[in-house]
Phospholipid-transporting ATPase (Arachis hypogaea), 1164 residues
Amino acid sequence: MDQVENFPNFSSSMNNSSRNSTFGHSGSKPVSYGSKGADSGALSMSQKEISDEDARLVYVDDPERTNERFEFSGNSIRTSKYSIITFLPRNLFEQFHRVAYIYFLIIAILNQLPQLAVFGRGVSILPLAFVLFVTAVKDAFEDWRRHKSDKVENNRIASVMVDGQFQGKKWKDVKVGEIVKIAANETIPCDIVLLSTSDPTGVAYVQTTNLDGESNLKTRYAKQETQAKVPEKERFIGLIKCEKPNRNIYGFQGNMEVDGKRLSLGSSNIVLRGCELKNTNWAVGVVVYCGHETKAMLNNSGAPSKRSQLETHMNLEIIMLSVFLVALCSVTSVCAAIWLKSHKNELDLMPYYRKLDFSEGEMESYQYYGWGLEILFTFLKSVIVFQVMIPISLYISMELVRVGQAYFMIRDSRMYDAATNSRFQCRALNINEDLGQIKYVFSDKTGTLTENKMEFQCASIWGVDYSSTEASLEHGHQAECSAQVDGKVLKPKMKVKVNQKLLQLSKNSFRNVEGKQIYDFFLALAACNTIVPLVVDTSDPTVKLIDYQGESPDEQALAYAAAAYGFMLIERTSGHIVIDIHGKRQRFNVLGLHEFDSDRKRMSVILGYTDNSVKLFVKGADTSMLSVIDKSLNAEILRATETHLHSYSSLGLRTLVIGMRDLSVSEFDQWHFAFEAASTALLGRAALLRKVASNVENNLCILGATAIEDKLQKGVPESIESLRTAGIKVWVLTGDKQETAISIGYSSKLLTNSTTQIIINSNNRESCRRHLQNALVKSRQPLAASAVPNNFEGFSDAIATPIALIIDGTSLVYILDSELEEELFELASRCSVVLCCRVAPLQKAGIVALVKKRTADMTLAIGDGANDVSMIQMADVGVGISGQEGRQAVMASDFAMGQFRFLVPLLFIHGHWNYQRLGYMIIYNFYRNAIIVLVLFWYVLFTAYTVTTAINEWSSMLYSIIYTAFPTIVVGILDKDLSKRILLKYPQLYGAGQRREAYNKKLFWVTMADTFWQSIVVFFVPLFAYWGSTVDISSIGDLWTLSVVILVNLHLAMDIIRWNWVIHAVIWGSIVATVICVMIIDAIPTFSGYWAIFNTAATGLFWLCLLGILIAALLPRFAVKYIYQYYYPSDIQISREAEKFANQRVIGGNRQIEMYPIPDGPPR
């Protein structure tokens, strides 16, 4: 993530301030991706006065009165979807969202009508019932686990104030308005406003790991007016007026009336459900939100729901099959009408046709419904008979295959992150195959390409560069600093490389002007932060380690750097800090602190010295700090610092500027008055606090700048090179500066010395338009001679002269959501690399949307922080990195993993396999069902179009469930067209998915043509062989059944690449199971065709027909397969042969496999 996190407040006067954030709600209005900030649209909730209609009134320690007017939600939670009563109706309702299920339900209902009954009434319902049952069992098991988890959570015990003393109470029984006491290391049972803590200053430390995954401690405060009250000794009387429940976990707005005073409440005064109390003995608070109204539960929305591109395309083929089904039924019904009209005088006497019923005497009319109704009934009966043309089993087969694929992805050791002990997570099972078709990867930088583990590298102080070129840094010298406190030795937990010259100068302190500036610089690093120093035990009882806990890795790196140079922060409370400065403990009063916000891009702290002097220290991004520096002071130092900043950024380092100024008594009093007024304001508090901060943060004297290294993750350059070799375009979207992004681009191999850079930095729309037009002209020049479609040489030339587009967020403000979008997309599509710098979270989503709207190519977004969530959700596939900045990205993602480099095995191995398997499985299922339908259709043509069926109704039902279902599922999970080694060695093979080689319209129609031929062979070979014989229809029906089952299984076997015992078992086991089932069905006397298979299988003609059918049906397929693979092989087939004969002749020595070029897909 590339944004600095907001900081909590640290000041006794600061307790009134709050962190304010706004959350957009999709659907409320169109999202403007080019927007500069969230405040441009309307005031946030924290900036509006809470009206009585929008407020929640909570009477402290009076739950009856609190819940008297409105019955607020209890604290019992329920994450399960169903109850015993609602399970059946709700689960069926959800399942019938699939249109195919409704289709099969209608078919089953039609078969219940006497006029349309083709199969037995019970048999017609079984396939749909089986699919519904299997899915229901899976859903019931998952929900049972949720019920179990809910029961454990609801029955946990909390300490609640009852009749003047704290008593144990189950979490589910806690109510809004009750006072709760939390002990150290306990979990908060609901959202509470702090009243008092064990710390005299009202500070409580909480860990929000369960809420957002962040392990660093956060600080929360009780109001000083409530801190002194002891609930056990005196009843607490007060009224809290706060906002209604909402999902914003970073914001809270309210006020509290106590002892005649009105106190403002903010996000620093509330502790949320799921947090844990740390380093605080106890905390007491009043419940404001319970159960499903807590912010944690309101944010419990699970993984996003997306549909795979393969399934979307599959629906088009299902529509085609539906049209074909209607055509077959229409032909049958029209032919039946013609036949009825031509034989209307013979119907009473015709054998095997509907006869007059004389059992009850003379009948006046024949049971004949008329020409029109007969056509209608024949059509509907045909739909019932041919229903399996639409494969109901395909849906459940795809679900089972995806579950199997997910299992192997999760278990893949290549994607196991040992550093965090985390495995790959598959959070969305329905888009596995999309991983094999990615064309665009949109990546965050910090924490995604880099480690987000900051290391202090160098500093510029008072115009002097103490950089890593110093010899001491080159040799990696690490300072060993310590402090003596209460007879114990305190050492920083992390060591930092130091510059010996700077370390020596830092010890001089006030001996000279240079020492004074260095003193102020490191004092600013130690004090201007929200770091909480925690003391950690070691094996030596006399030595303790100081662990600096902070919300930002940058802050931690700077605090450890200050400690390494002798400025060790050893204590922090809400009112003061203690810093050990080269062995001398000094205490500073924290008179005020202005938290970081995305508008100012700065934070500041006001320190009171022992001599009553007051100083303001400010740190922030260079773009925001240089505008508030007094340029009339030390202009040369300012210019030198700017030069150093540029050189640091060019090395890929993250930079911050440090400044300070003295505050006079009148200036401080003026600030303090304005700050108090802003903190207690009920209207526009956040805007007023920003204004107060901006007024005091000016005319600063520059102290210097810091440079922090955020190292690339292991394997990032190699991974990006592999992705680009595979034809995937990698775009980096970062909030960092342009120089930093360019430097990372070089180190990650996105940029090379031969890359032509096109940079667009504009401050208005016309400038953007002009820059885009000039860039388009420039982009066409190197590609003009080589951009020949389908030309291999042209492809090589294009790659030899790559172009990189580098654009900043300010330019995107004017480009996105405007007519310039089209020009930007055209330019970007001509570039091999795109770097977007200084972009806001919504702009990241806007860039992804820019590509999705204009191309059919698949997009993947990968990030690690909260500012990547919108981008992750916008892309076709979202991947979250479980890194240093919480789990917001993971919770919003489809897949989650620990390192960027895992993207290569995820896409090249599992993505490729998943796409190839699912694509083949869908085509095969269409073939498998169509062949049985066509056999039934040919039979109808020879039986006076009466829509009777030769295949036993039980065999028809079992065909898609037992006879042929399991082989396709197992092959879809286990078969591998290529090994992992080959797929990783040759990234070009990934292009098969981008070109949609495994599933496309051409393949569909070729398969349907093959199906047509095979159905003709299956039907007509037995028909002519037994023509004129006395064999009954049940016997020949059994022959057709066995022929089709053996044929489709052999068809599948021809395409299997990697055989193993499981595949052998299901292929040949299905054939054996079919024979056994047919024998059992024919051995039941009550069924038609009793003993048919035993009679007909005893003849040689039966086996001769079976063998002839298999040879004749598969011969054309075998011939076409041979010709295609021998004369027109694909990359995959070439690689398969190369792998097969690797040790003999193909991959010998330095020989390489020549791959086809990977062309860009045409725009939609």
About this structure: Residues 1-48, 469-476, 783-800, 1145-1164 have pLDDT under 50 and may be disordered. Residues 174-299 form a domain with the Calcium-transporting ATPase, cytoplasmic transduction domain A fold (CATH 2.70.150.10). The chain has 38 helices and 35 strands. The two ends are 32 Å apart (CA to CA).
